Amino acid sequence: MSDLKQEHCKPCEGGVDPLDRTAAQNLLSQARGWTLNDPATEISRTYSFKNFYETMAFVNALAWVAHKEDHHPDLEVGYKRCRVRYTTHAIKGLSMNDFICAAKVNDLIGE
């Protein structure tokens, strides 16, 4: 299995099937702390921080990863937390891009 942090997202404009639950669960082993939703269409993780400044520093670093990979999460930002959700909208489910980005986001905090 390749190291997802070393991979890069590939454009996805649809026309391919989303990953099934088994494939998604297997990829979660490289995205520590992320959870799969019930229909297996989204992964998410909530990160906690000491204060608002650290939260926003994380959000800005995450925005850089999203820009470089051209794959963008949904974010819910609060004072000391950030919930990150990935899905590939074009296929209404999960793709490798979601797991690549999840691994890269974890790398921002040294995981």
Automatic annotation (TrEMBL):
It catalyses: (4aS,6R)-4a-hydroxy-L-erythro-5,6,7,8-tetrahydrobiopterin = (6R)-L-erythro-6,7-dihydrobiopterin + H2O. GO terms for molecular function: 4-alpha-hydroxytetrahydrobiopterin dehydratase activity. Keywords: Lyase. CDD domains: PCD_DCoH_subfamily_a. Its EC number is 4.2.1.96. One of its GO terms (biological process) is tetrahydrobiopterin biosynthetic process. It comes from the Bacteria. It holds the Pfam family Pterin_4a. Belongs to the pterin-4-alpha-carbinolamine dehydratase family. NCBIfam families: PRK00823.1-4 (NF002019). This is Putative pterin-4-alpha-carbinolamine dehydratase. It comes from Sulfurifustis variabilis.
